[in-house]
Amino acid sequence: MELRQLRHFIALAEEEHFGRAAERVFVVQQALSGSIRKLEDDLGVRLFERTTRRVTLTPAGAEFLIGARATLASLEQTLERTKRAARGEVGRLAVGFVSGLAFGGLPEVVRTFRTRFPEVAVELLELTAAEQEEALREGRIDIGFVLLPVRDPALTREPLWRDPLIVALPSGHALASQETVRIEDLRDENFVFFPRHVRAAYFDQVMNLATNAGFQPRIVQEAIEIPTLLSLVAAGIGVFLPHRFFRRLTLPGVTYRPLENAPIVEIDAAWRRNDASPVVRQFLAVGREVLGSRMP
Predict the structure, then answer these.
(1) Same domain, 257 and 197
(2) Range among 127-141, 156-170, 176-190 with highest mean pLDDT value
(3) What digits encode the pLDDT tens for the residues 80-105?
(4) Which of 2, 164, 270, 273 could bridge to 157 as Cys pair (CB 3.0-4.6 Å)?
């Protein structure tokens, strides 16, 4: 049995006339007649009662019509879903991200993507950059958002946006009244920051910035989460140098100020080099569109 035979059968059942049914499926009447006859032979049952004036379904034909319609409808749905999957419009996408990006960039990309592709199930996993590289290699995530360079040759990356460092100050601090702050102004301040093993590249970037300004930051308290570090700033324990997009995280007692000549932090998308997933391509396209204006 072939799919074209089902289409021929349904056309004849609905038209009840060989000539009209043949026109509907774009074949000559003789070909349609032969197709129906072969279908009946394959099934071993008579599907139609034929007279000189019309063609009607037998009881077996009426039952077969129900299944034939359901089969074609299911096939058409499967074909359409397959085509949509090839375009990246349906499927599943696991996205890794470092915690800070939940406060800027990532929410806009995910919201836009989900609006455009509602039939793609998006799973978000908060992971460190190192954990994301491992998850990408193992296939546990499809794409990652990282603040560190990706060194694994099996992975590829693309910068999606760049942000400068800023300074977070206790609101009553003398520097909070200034429009901008120089790194030299922080020479005598206490700092709160991540332990180096948590975000080594970020840590080294800030240490090098201070070293070039002639001092070594005095870190008096460490924490691994951004909200905790900002809470320490609000408590007056020290100052902190976050990325600019953390300004969205407003806490009473914390004032953000631009940092003069601040280093730029690059936020990259990373994915498997050999991954041809249409869903990944669509997500990257949305990321470029939404975040492209943030690239200098």
Answers:
(1) yes
(2) 176-190
(3) 777 777 777 778 999 999 877 777 77
(4) 270
Q: How many domains does the chain have?
A: 3
Six token digits for residue 139: 């296939």
Please list the residues that pair with 161 across neighbouring strands. Answer: 267
Are 151 and 284 part of one and the same domain?
yes
Q: How far apart are the first and last CA of the chain?
A: 61
Same domain membership, residue 47 and residue 98: no
Tell which residue, 272, 296, 288, 243, has the closest CA to residue 108: 288
Closest CA to 61 of 72, 76, 77, 50: 50
Q: Which residues of 28-50 are buried (b: 16+ CB within 10 A; e: fewer)?
A: eeeebbebbeebbeeeeeebbee
| Digit-coded pLDDT (tens) for 140-160 | 999 998 876 677 888 988 888
The 10 Å CB-count burial string (b at 16+, else e) for 10-24 is: bbbbebebbeebbeb
Q: How many residues does the chain have?
A: 296
Which helix (H) or strand (E) covers residue 206, if one does? helix 200-212
* Distance (Å, whole) CA 146 – CA 68: 51
Domain that holds residue 216: 166-262
Q: Which residues contact 39 (CB under 8 A, 6 or more apart)?
A: 1, 5, 8, 9, 47
Separation CA 136–CA 153 (nearest Å): 12
Structural contact between residues 174 and 255, judged by C-beta atoms closer than 8 angstroms: no
Report which of 138, 169, 167 is spatially closest to residue 152, judged by C-alpha positions. Answer: 138
Tokens of 124: 């978000």
Residue 283: CATH number of its domain: 3.40.190.10
